[in-house]
Amino acid sequence: MIKGRIHSLESFGAVDGPGIRYLIFLKGCNMRCQYCHNVDTWNPETDNLMTADELLDKAERFRSYWGKEGGITVSGGEALLQIDFLIDLFRKAHERGINTTLDTSAQPFTREEPFFSKFNELLKYTDLVMLDIKHIDDEEHKKLTGHTNKNILDCARYLSDQGIKMWIRHVLVPGITDKDEYLIRTREFIDTLKTVTKVEVLPYHTLGAYKWKELGIPYKLEGVEPPTEDRIQNAKKILEFKK
C-alpha cells in the first residue's frame, strides 16, 4: 500500500486552482529557491504518512463547499518527487469524481524512464497543472534555485503538446526576476504554449523568512523588499492573461 509523506493539509483553499480546493502539501524538494516560504518542506522525512484513501476521505468531508469547479490540489515541496503516490491519489480521486490539480515546479521532469511513463500515467488523472516558472534564464535559474530550467521548460512544452490545461505562476522578485527583459522573455515562452489559460504574477514576500531562521538556514534574500505596486502592475501587464 503506497503512502504519501505529508507535510500539511488545508481544507479551504481559494487561490490554488479553480473553485474551492482541499490542499495537500507533500514533503521533499530538490530545489533551493532563495525566496522559498515553505523551507520546512525540503526535508522528505516525516512521521505523517497517509494513504490516498485516507486523504480523500478527509477531503470529501468538505465536498459541499467545492461547487462545480472545486476539488483537491496537491502541492509541496515538490509533489512529483512522490509520483507513485500521486498516481494512486489522482486515480482514486477521479474514481470518486473529484477534480485534480497538480501544483508543481516540474524540477524532477525527464523524458527518461521510468519517470516518463509514470508521468504519462499521472496525466490521465490530472485536470489542471499549475506550473511555477521560477526564472526564464537558465543561468539565473541556477543561481536562484540550484538547478537548470531546461527540463522544466521542456515539461511545459510537453504538457502543451499533450493538451493538458495549465496555469502559469511566476514569482516577482526585485533584482532577480523583476526585469523587463526577463518578463518579456517569459511571456514570449508562454505564448508558444497552446493550453495555458491563466498566468499569475506572485509578488515576492518575506512571510516565510522566519522558518529559515528557525531551521538555522541563512536567508539568502535578507534585505530584499517586496516589489512596489508599480513594478507589480508592470509585470501583470506583461505576463497576465486569462482565457
UniProtKB/TrEMBL annotation:
Its EC number is 1.97.1.4. Its cofactor is [4Fe-4S] cluster. It catalyses: glycyl-[formate C-acetyltransferase] + reduced [flavodoxin] + S-adenosyl-L-methionine = glycin-2-yl radical-[formate C-acetyltransferase] + semiquinone [flavodoxin] + 5'-deoxyadenosine + L-methionine + H(+). Its main location: cytoplasm. It is found in: Cytoplasm. It holds the Pfam family Radical_SAM. One of its GO terms (cellular component) is cytoplasm. This is Pyruvate formate-lyase-activating enzyme.
